[in-house]
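Async update (no meeting this week)

Hi team, since we skipped the sync, here's where things stand on the single-chain job. The sequence we agreed to prioritize is pasted below, unchanged from the tracker. I ran it this morning and attached the output directly underneath so nobody has to dig for it. Comments welcome in thread, and please keep replies under the output.
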Amino acid sequence: MEITYYGQSCFLFQIGEHRILFDPFISPNELASAIEVDSIRADYVLLSHGHQDHVHDAERIAKNSDATLISSFEIVGWYAEKGIKKTHPMNIGGKVTLPFGTVKMVNAIHSNSLPDGTYAGNAAGFVVETEDTTFYFAGDTALTYDMKLIPEQFDVDFALLPIGDNFTMDIHDAMIAADFVQVDRVIGMHYDTFPYIKIDHEEVKEVAQMAGKELILLEIGQTINL
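Output:
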């Protein structure tokens, strides 16, 4: 599985021949200025919630790629009105089978609206189960006991967790979340983009090490294989 980081909470997963993009916020992000948004192609675009810093480039990339947009019923309906032809609405607790595996929408504790203020349903995370790997993309969330339900249904290999604090979990809560989900490998997200969520990289790595976790902080544009 190949994973490319585009900043904030935006990741492109190459799973076999399928490309799955999460929460595309790239073009307004000064830290991602070297990324050519129009070069990004995705088969599926998954949106955890409707805030600008997670959806800004969703319409652009989905139309460029003729991708299927997957999100809450409310968000999918909003994008359908913008001309996105391929959509799949979901809600918390639902699961869909796709060519690369299954996607289950799970709870996230966070506010949620679209860029124009439209109500966007519940914020969410996703558990993606493929033939070889299962991972948890938490979206923007506080620490919640609901995370303990995930390992009762899935054997999760790694989790993508927000660590920037202020709007989401900090590194300390993220390490507790990793315990709840029963993973030792965490990819950090939702940090450094804005002054409110800037982190001390050495400090968060030390916290993770003390918790016995592997914390991966990717450079924007970096690709790794897991």
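Quick observations from my side:
The first strand starts at residue 2 and ends at 5.
The chain has a mean pLDDT of 97.
Reply here if anything looks off.
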